[in-house]
Amino acid sequence: MGKSNDIRPIVKLKSTAGTGYTYVTRKNRRNDPDRLVLKKYDPVLRKHVDFKEER
């Protein structure tokens, strides 16, 4: 039923701390054509770290 939209693809954000924890989110390809980097909470480390987009 859901539509697959190429402007807002689903991306995986992987922790740069090496814990292997990931978030799944959507991004707007027109506003963010490069790889996304967000500061989010890593529950394994119990700290906020950078999460980079994984393809």
Automatic annotation (TrEMBL):
Gene Ontology cellular component terms for the protein in this record: cytosolic large ribosomal subunit
Key words of the record: Ribonucleoprotein, Ribosomal protein
Matches recorded under Pfam families: Ribosomal_L33 (PF00471)
GO molecular function, a single term: structural constituent of ribosome
InterPro entries tied to this protein: Ribosomal_bL33 (IPR001705), Ribosomal_bL33_CS (IPR018264), Ribosomal_bL33_sf (IPR038584), Ribosomal_zn-bd (IPR011332)
GO terms, biological process: translation
PROSITE patterns assigned: RIBOSOMAL_L33
Protein family (similarity comment): Belongs to the bacterial ribosomal protein bL33 family.
Name used for this protein in its record: Large ribosomal subunit protein bL33
Species this chain originates from: Mycobacterium adipatum
Lineage, opening ranks: Bacteria, Bacillati, Actinomycetota, Actinomycetes, Mycobacteriales
Gene name in the database record: rpmG
